[in-house]
Amino acid sequence: CGTGGVFLAVILIRTVILYIFTVLTMRIMGKRQIGELETSELVVTILISELVTLPMQDADYPLVYAFIPVFALVGMELLTSVSLMKSRLFRNFLSGSYSVIIADGKLNQQEMSRSQITIDELMEELRQKGALNIDEVKFCILETSGKISVILKKDCQSTALPAMIIVDGKLVKSNLVKAKMSRSQISGILKKYQVKSEKDVFFLSVCDGQVILIKKDQT
After folding, report:
1. How far does Cα 216 stand from its chain's mean position?
2. Each residue's pLDDT tens digit in the chain (219 positions)?
């Protein structure tokens, strides 16, 4: 009975230690809801849960065998997060880009097929957002998180989606083409807002001729 009690106490202590350790590692990775996890974050979360389960069930399994790989995974995730912030190319590769399923009441069947969304799934999403018919929808967008955003015609006067022209000091050439704008036009906008260079712009978007420009914070 004494041996059994000691064994249970050891299991309890190990479980508490692993619980605290797991919570701390998740805090290091940042605050996100489960539905908002990026692909890499979801993979790391699943692997961490598997790694801490082994020493929790087996008292003979050294805790360090769980700590080391978890630290390695968290380090990789932090490195990935920094890379996502610094490189738009890497961000597009890892997270992908959004897909416009419906634009001004017109269904894009090619995007539906590419995104593997059935018409039943789409109509269910539209009903949940207050639309009974496709022609009531101004924009329906499949976000990179996998969620579907629905903007109704009655709630939107824009004829197009905002085009992000500059993000974190870097010109997004593909969006420049979509917005049918030239570099000289962008230079004119920067001059109007008294900005010397694209590198000084944190965010610049254009929609229906309306410009939103946010300068980088001076550090």
Report:
1. 22
2. 556 677 678 778 888 888 888 888 877 776 555 556 666 777 888 888 888 888 887 778 888 888 888 888 888 888 887 887 777 777 777 767 788 999 988 999 999 998 889 999 999 999 999 999 999 999 999 988 788 999 998 888 777 888 899 988 888 888 888 888 888 999 999 999 999 888 899 999 998 888 999 998 875
Dihedral angle, C-alpha 198, 199, 202, 203, nearest 10 °: 20
How would you classify the pairing of strands 163-167 and 137-142? Answer: unpaired
Burial of 126 (0-12, 13-18, 19+ CB in 10 A): buried
Residue 12, CA distances (Å) to 6, 19, 26, 86 in order = 10, 10, 21, 43
Q: Which of 112, 99, 104 shows the shortest CA–CA distance to 145?
A: 99
Name the token pair of 132.
């009974």
Long-range contacts of 149-156 (CB under 8 A, 24+ apart): 150/125, 150/126, 153/104, 153/105
Task: Provide the Cα torsion 153, 159, 160, 164; round to 10°.
Answer: -110
Instruction: Single out the residue of 138, 128, 41, 135 nearest to residue 80, CA to CA.
Output: 41
Cα 75 to Cα 172: distance, rounded to the nearest angstrom: 29
Specify the residue for token string 């109509």: 123
